[in-house]
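We treat protein structure as text, and this decision shapes the records that our systems exchange. Because each token names a local backbone shape, the row as a whole describes the fold. An entry from our holdings is shown next, in its original layout:
>
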Amino acid sequence: MRGVDDAPARAEGDEHDGVADGDADLVLPLDVEEWLSWLVTERGRAPSTLAAYRRDVRAWWAWLRSRGHDDLAGVTEDDIAAWVGVLRERGRAPATVARAVVAVRSLHRFLAEEGRVPVDAGAGLEAPRVPAGLPKALTEAEVEALLAAVVGDDPIARRDRAMLEVLYGTGLRISELVGLRLADVDLESALLRAFGKGSKERVVPLGRHAVAALYEWLRPGGRPALEPDRWARRGDAEAVFLNRRGGRLTRQGAWLVVTRHGEAAGLAGKLTPHALRHSCATHMLDHGADIRAVQELLGHASISTTQVYTRVSAERLWEAYRAAHPRAVR
């Protein structure tokens, strides 16, 4: 089958993208379920991407039903264009609208190529442009304050300290952090193995602070103190980061850890799910790191994604110049 333009157009931290939350119980047509299965088996889409697409298409199907459609065969390009207008009227973020269009267009191309509908209703529709925004990075002083906000030597404090040091020191995504297995961490070589989007594997170096924090977390008094007598789920026993009940820490749980310490450090409102990842990349470039090395560290498929951070560093340079140079301000 020909490639389908179903790459996710996702905003950073966009966790509530559903347009019609009240339609969560709506049964999707079998053709839609088969498309979702195809995205997993043939395209290797991540669970988070699949969940977002399911929400988008459920909202799309609910809207079509409200317009009198009882199947997908009669959908036209005008219908999709009208749907895009509805999304914008509801105040959806540009990245959310773009991803919804990508999902719907991917669905209809799949149906057309499989011969399930007479025409591809989304063939001539362009995804809305998403304004290029700059990642929100913390200052180095703010990161230090965040790391210093973790106090104590109990198991939870050791875990939280290790999580923050690893997130900032390696630039891992939250999902990559909670997916770490014990076999993925080599403290002796100061390396860890991360699995990014599309299950792409990369090896990431660990700084001395991250190594020290992980060592304290993994030794007696840390992770072993949270291990249950009996593991509730397969895979929990090999998870690096555990919750208070001894199960694998979830992405939402990990983010709550970050935000809790962020509030203690006076950073409420400044943190996003990728704040430490952005900060890692920005600070490395600020200190002269090669952009290709940063691309490899973050697991970006394209150098253009990493180049966004060069714009951030340039803006920070100008801010410093305007603030410090006597002839910078006219």
In short: Residues 1-22 have pLDDT under 50 and may be disordered. The first strand starts at residue 185 and ends at 186. The first helix runs from residue 30 to 41.
